[in-house]
Amino acid sequence: MQLIAYLHATLAARLAELRREGDRGDSPVPTAVIIFGLVAAALVVTGLVMARARNWMESVPTAP
């Protein structure tokens, strides 16, 4: 029974401490926006590299 009382007191103290702290981290929305922007930039760069590689491969002369 002492273990349960100790765990209850410890949990209650930790929850009270978490409620007092105002800074709980960043919201997930800005993180999602940043990730979306990075993915969009990566897609654009990949598309440009693919187009450039395709043009370069088409300009290579073929064997007679």
Would you kindly provide a brief summary of this structure?
The chain is an all-alpha fold. It has helices at residues 2-20, 28-59.
Main attributes of the structure:
rod-shaped; mainly alpha; 2 helices; 64 residues; 80% helix
Describe the 3D structure:
By secondary structure, this protein is an all-alpha fold. It is 80% helix and 0% strand. The protein has two helices and no strands. The mean pLDDT is 89.
Protein topology:
Elements: H1 2-20, H2 28-59
Fraction in helix:
over 70%
Distance between the termini: 90 Å
Radius of gyration: 28 Å
Spatial shape: rod-shaped
Structural class, from helix and strand content? Answer: mainly alpha
Percent strand = under 5%
Number of extended strands: 0
Continuous helix count: 2
Largest sheet: none
**Could you name the ranges where pLDDT drops below 50 across 5 or more consecutive residues?**
none
Mean pLDDT reading: 89
| Element pattern in H and E | HH
